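Two proteins, back to back. First:
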Amino acid sequence: MKVLLVEDDAIISEGLQYSLRQEGYEVAAAVSQKEALALIQSEIHWDFCLLDVMLPDGDGFAICREIRKNSQTPILFLTACDDEVHTVMALEQGADDYITKPFRIRELMARMKAILRRTEQKGRPDAAVSIVGKNQVNLQTGKIYCGNEEIILTAMEYKLLLIFLNHRGQTLTRRQILNNIWDDVGDYVNDNTLSVYIKRLRKKLGDSPEGQIIKTVRGTGYRMEK
């Protein structure tokens, strides 16, 4: 499995490269936005991307946007500040998760594996096709279409969609949703982060006040109605 690591701090980068290789990953490291974009635009298929936010010639957000133009490669941000603005920006750009420095290697590995498990769920055999609003969700391929246009979801967005599909018509509390998302590795998502994920999912599914797909149940949580 090939991992792209974008980190300009040499000590952090070397430590991560060593730990990732010990876990069996192939790692390519970049120290700048320019280097990272060159690797992304090469013919190499990346299975996972670890992106630092602040880089000497730009930031990880621009790299994330470039990846998301035509790829669902899992992305985890490495951020130096536990700032809600940075968190929201990372998730809005299409990241699957973020972790604040300094972090423990074991926690990073756990988050990576959780994201990869969610990604793998898209390929599990299942003949059913679900209709969500104007969208068709193929549970065999993990692909979503609105007419002939494919709707690209991140691994976390797809996991969230599956939770709603599995409890269609049922009101879910925010705590129930969080527990379902992080049932394997612990509760790493807070209320603000969950709000961002739901906002992104609604937008991609074409949710609107006139044709509401995921309804907010005030004081309780959410319900998928269509």
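And the second protein:
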Amino acid sequence: MITKREKLQYVYVFLTDLAALAASVILAWLIVGGIMGQLLPYSVLDWVQALVLLVLAYTVTFFCFDQTENIVKRTRGQEAKLSIKSNLLMMVIYSAFLTLSKAVLQDSRYFLVGVVSFNLFLLPAAHGLLKKLLVKAPDSLQNETLVGIVTTGDHAGKMIREISNDWSRRVCGVALLEATGDAIGTKVENIEIKANYDTFMNWLRRAALDEVYIDVPMDSGESFIPYLEEMESMGLTVHFRMPLLDRIEESCCNETSSARLCRDLGRCAGGNLVTMATIEPKLRDQILKRLMDILGSLVGCIISIPIIAITAIPLKLESPGPLFFKQKRVGRNGRIFYIHKLRSMYMDAEERKKELMAQNEMNGLMFKMQDDPRITKVGKFIRKTSIDELPQFFDVLRGDMSLVGTRPPTLDEYKQYESHHKRRLSMKPGITGLWQVSGRSDIEDFEDVVKLDVEYIDNWSLWGDIKILFKTVWVVFAGRGAK
């Protein structure tokens, strides 16, 4: 569910960034055109076309980034990185728009560089001003959510601090169930104690509140149902903690895995159902990742065809047999698919593998061997240069794989998996991944591979995929990592 803060932040940040861009355009026009004299006398229509394309490029760039993160929590360093990434992407998109539309202003590169250069500094500055406005004067914006808390003394401080981190919410008071009459009117975490167990409903009936957070020690919840019914009848949004869910997490999850979970409340067979699952990327990010896979694999297929054709001649001469190696692999959450590679081994490689298992250099479920006798001379070359992986671009185009993901295991490896190993299969397998660009030849423990794959899954981002792709190009051309 999209929160009120996320909705408001989309609007505020969009308008703030647009204002920063407008200021950058004005500065670029004044300095590049007025002081430097590098702007030709373009017509009004030329300027309108260029500015419309710039706004369009800005809009596309804006929605390429996750705007749901609380902007107030972002550090200056994070703001600087965001500014660099967004401005570089906007420059690329804007340049493409200018070229495709054959706009007259595409000849004025000084103007484009000037806009991006000024915006690199104005964007973080504008975000800083917006943060101050959101933190110091949310009530003046007339859009804050008024919150009341019903809890106990040992939970009050943590709840107040957590909710107060959200600039769109203001905690108006707290009811401590065990509080004495003398404690009412005092403060906890600078928030006034408004009521205790005997008076909290009277406070909720009269106070100006939009939402109520309830964190009380109730196992069955039966005694609190009448209060919840009355709160619902008042039209309040009620958030209440579920101790049972806490106990389930304590039993089966550690602190890190708990943070990775999403919790949804639904209905099934006439009853309420709590769903716990690993957080998936947003639909927008999934679509963008698939689009990147399609475009990247199309380019990869076009580049691969002549390389495969040239490689096929010496490969077939050295080892007669099929040009391509087709093997069953295990994909996302245990799905079986066929992976395709250029054959780099002799035809009896699978049978000979059993004889060589004693020489396996990997600790765990993967097989790796220095100077593997099953690999042909041409095979060593195409493995070293990763040419044997080129047919996988067709697997990506079909949707069985992604450009970036985790290494898909063989069926034999998968049958030996322990429960925590399957976690690395919770995303679609990829041609390359974090393991491949992290010195894979130096990693000799399968558990280390699992850690890298889980790290990739837990911290996934589109920018992360792009970084891995660039690192992969460097690793391939440097001849590092593959054996």
